[in-house]
Amino acid sequence: MSADESHDYDLMVIGSGPGGQKAAIAAAKLGKRVAIADRGHMMGGVCVNTGTIPSKTLREAVLYLSGFSQREMYGASYRVKSEITIDDLLARTHHVIGRETEIVRNQLLRNHVDILTGTARFTDPHTVLVEGAGRGDHNRVTAAHVVIATGTRPARPDTVAFDGERVVDSDQVLQLGRVPGSMVVVGAGVIGIEYASMFAALGTRVTVVEKREGMLGFCDPEVVESLKFHLRDSAVTFRFGEEVSSVEVNGRGTVTSLASGKKIPADMVMYSAGRQGMTEELGLDAAGVVADDRGRIQVDKQFRTSVEHIAAVGDVIGFPALASTSMDQGRLAAYHLFGEPVRELHELQPIGIYTIPEISFCGRTEAELTAAAVPYETGLARYRELARGAIVGDSYGMLKLLVSPDDHTLLGVHVFGTNATDLVHIGQAIMGCGGSVDYLVDTVLNYPTLSEAYKVAALDATNKIRALEAVERGDQV
Ligand SMILES: Cc1cc2nc3c(=O)[nH]c(=O)nc-3n(C[C@H](O)[C@H](O)[C@H](O)COP(=O)(O)OP(=O)(O)OC[C@H]3O[C@@H](n4cnc5c(N)ncnc54)[C@H](O)[C@@H]3O)c2cc1C
């Protein structure tokens, strides 16, 4: 038990998403008295209810029911179900959300974390008022430390009339009444392009409008090109360098007008125009904490805000705004607040983009290495060269390794295709341990697997490096 009995709790956590949950559990495991607040319908956060989990479950339902990933094997007309309804898709999503919510609640209760239902706001730096709709959902509690993990909500341009049916944001897309025949996606960020690819796989004619000249600029350009090729093949039209000037809605559908004069008719429009930090309702003034105009809170390396005993983690602190990183931020913030010795997060972190097909990478890109004048060689494996690629019917996937020609260390790994988001971790582990592709050349991997792509790419890179060395030595052929 904590020594500080002057407060109701040692730690009050606001928000039950991945950051809040892990902060609460880490503190509880240290023997601290912990409470966590969230709105009743949001247990598990954006992650479980409107973001990561529903979108990835929807993707799985789309892939299964549309038979999309089996068409190479069984032909372009292959479907598991000919008429896919929104209920077919959402049944799976609701099932998984229910399960995940239960897991989160159970983990918190098992660790003796008190769950306070309602919206929380500071009334002073150590006091939080939690008010909900239910009888008895009114709690004023004091805490020695506070973790803010309130996440974000979709940003909504004032000029757009969202109605939840014809014009929706990325939260509302999970409440659609039917699968649209055509759709405009405004914003080609990760969320926009993930949903664009899911609807395209369902047969929706999708137009993506993006004011930048391209998309996913932080990824390997070759991989992004491959994705664009695939999406175009699924009837996705890209309008890059274009801005939406208005969206009109009537009983028949929507017309999206672009500043360039183009008009795009579609059944519906989905806006994915960034996200806003959920700080308006927090009463931050009363705590002495400041948020910027995007609702984001600035923190130091230990996730402390400008107020020593108040930390902030997860999407509310901005980049990278991923469930994966939010969890670790929560855990680390709790340890730092209670002075528990802890190692920092490894700076090498993977990025996963669950488009259809999916993308994942870790480490540096070719553009970054070139800009930094770091020499590298590439090693490429195409899934179509792998027995497992043929078995699963993926002929387009690829894995690219970026390798130092000097000491063969792995500088980056870029994967496109089936299981990319899982496969990337092999490269990440090698890089994280300072390993080289020699390990991949000298090791035996299960066969037939997609992991074998690592072996093929490592051999490709080392053969190129060997060829260069032979020329430099002046070896006779
Ligand atoms: C469509 C979509 C897909 C995504 N896909 C992925 C993915 O594939 N992989 C990945 O790693 N990440 C993904 N993300 C991002 C991921 O969901 C977030 O990074 C993660 O949920 C952030 O966690 P968090 O701890 O900040 O809290 P959040 O999950 O954002 O939850 C915050 C919680 O705080 C609560 N809250 C807010 N204000 C208050 C208040 N005043 N009082 C009480 N409670 C409050 C909210 O109700 C909410 O439950 C996706 C996001 C979206 C929107």
Set down the secondary structure blueprint.
Layout: E1 9-14, H1 18-29, E2 34-38, H2 45-49, H3 52-66, H4 71-74, H5 86-110, E3 114-117, E4 119-124, E5 127-131, E6 138-148, E7 152-154, E8 167-169, E9 182-186, H6 190-201, E10 205-210, H7 221-233, E11 236-240, E12 244-250, E13 253-258, E14 263-266, E15 268-271, E16 275-277, H8 284-287, E17 310-312, H9 323-337, E18 351-353, E19 359-363, H10 366-371, E20 377-382, H11 387-392, E21 398-403, E22 410-416, H12 420-432, H13 437-442, H14 452-473
Parallel strand pairs: 1-2, 1-6, 2-3, 6-17, 8-15, 9-10, 9-15, 10-11
Antiparallel strand pairs: 4-5, 5-6, 7-16, 12-13, 13-14, 18-19, 19-22, 20-21, 21-22
This protein binds flavin-adenine dinucleotide (FAD).
Flavin-adenine dinucleotide (FAD) is lined by residues 14-20, 37-39, 42, 45-47, 51-52, 55-56, 119-120, 149-152, 170, 191, 278, 281-282, 314-316, 321-324, 326, 354.
